[in-house]
Amino acid sequence: MLIWAASRVITTTLVSILASVQGPNAWTGASPGYADFATMWDAHWYNIVAVVGYPSALPITDLGEIGESAWAFMPGYPSLARLLMELSGQPWEPVAVLVSVVFSLGTALLLFRLMSRVLDDSASRFAVVLFCVAPLSPMLQFGYAESMYLFFLTLALLLLLERRYALLFPVIAVMALTRPSGLAFALALALHVIYRWFTRAADAFPLRERVLAASVAVFSGVMGLAWPAAAWIVTGSMTAYTDTELAWRAPYIGYVELIPFTAWFQGGLWWLGMPLGILAVVALILGFTMLMFTPAVRRLGVDLRLWVASYGLYLLAVFFPQSSTFRLLMPMFPLLGAVALPRSLWYRVGVVVLCILGQWGWLLLCWGVDGADWTPP
Q1: Residue 39: which residues within 8 A CB-CB, separation 6 or more?
Q2: Which of 107, 147, 209, 307 gives 151 a disulfide partner, CB atoms 3.0 to 4.6 angstroms apart?
Q3: Helices 2-20 and 121-133, interaxial angle, to 10°?
């Protein structure tokens, strides 16, 4: 808790400094207060969901394509915020920040327990330090769903390592309706079942655990499709959710269909051109694969590696790389355990300093608004 509290003081100071020089923008006036500054960008969409809900008709652009709408934002976080708004009588901005801050503390506490399953106390504690001061850690106290999602993801991973499969059902249900994750977690669970089956001679895999583990994997897959199905039911369009998500990449590559495993190559071509863009993506895939087999990452154990690999494959399949990709990498936080392994004091101090500098860099690049900003967080 002390680590978490100290990190929040540092991050709040950085955010407040940037807010003091922020000019007027689409969400706030000049030099906004903390709560207003922390609820810019997509926090506005969550605010719409909390106050108004979801539209029954999809917006159509001047080009006749599906436009951006609240359907891209899942209901878990704004629903909880709306409940607290009703109970407290407070407006969206402070409630949204409060929800994120409280869940960030819960995540830090759970993360120590999770890391303690695979690492010693020193490395586990330093992994929590890295999580709390990471370049994207300001997101833990902004009006986004990440903090709430990471809490339930950490809890789900802890339950998986402890093989408490039955308790995963409600956790996955909430997690999958907070951020897109059900399909990635279903893949990790399926690989977990396969691994346990092939290693059952050394590690017993009783019939009851087989049934529960396989059932929760299927349930996670169903929950991964639940929100697209809800959008279909309400709007009458089977592709309402995916069309809405695709609207956010239209400014880069125009309106295209969702073809799995093509978006990163499209992004590579958009950012770097041919052939460098294709080569960069291939190199990234090979580098990530090699990383998963390094000694430090292998220390994290099979299950955490299966999650990181499954989520990485999910990102490769469906997401378009741009500035918000940094935020989308946050669920790979178990890799911080590998970074936390070296015990050298100079190494650890240096990594923390670099992380704090990274916070300032990310705030300047992705959060602060400078004119027609094209680097959304």
Answers
A1: 27, 47, 92, 93, 96, 97, 142, 143
A2: 107
A3: 20
| Structural domain contains residue 377 | no
The enclosing H or E element of 352 equals helix 345-362
Q: Which helix (H) or strand (E) holds 98?
A: helix 92-116
Which residue segment(s) compose the domain that 260 sits in? Answer: 2-367
Contact (Cβ atoms closer than 8 angstroms) between residue 328 and residue 315: yes
And the tokens for 264? 């990163």
Residue 11 CA to residue 135 CA, distance in Å, equals 10
pLDDT, tens only, 347-365: 999 999 999 999 999 999 9
Of 171, 151, 136, nearest in space to 102 by CA = 151
Place of tokens 């583990």: 213
Among 218, 183, 184, 211, smallest CA distance to 197 is for 211
Tally of CB atoms within 10 A around 345 = 8
* pLDDT band at residue 152 under the 50/70/90 scheme: very high
Residue 66, phi then psi, degrees to nearest 5: -70, 130
Quickly state the pLDDT bin for 86 (edges 50, 70, 90). Answer: very high
- Which candidate, 108, 129, 109, 200, places its Cα nearest to that of 163? 200
Residue 104 included in any domain: yes
SS3 65: coil
| CA torsion through residues 96, 102, 108, 110, sign | negative
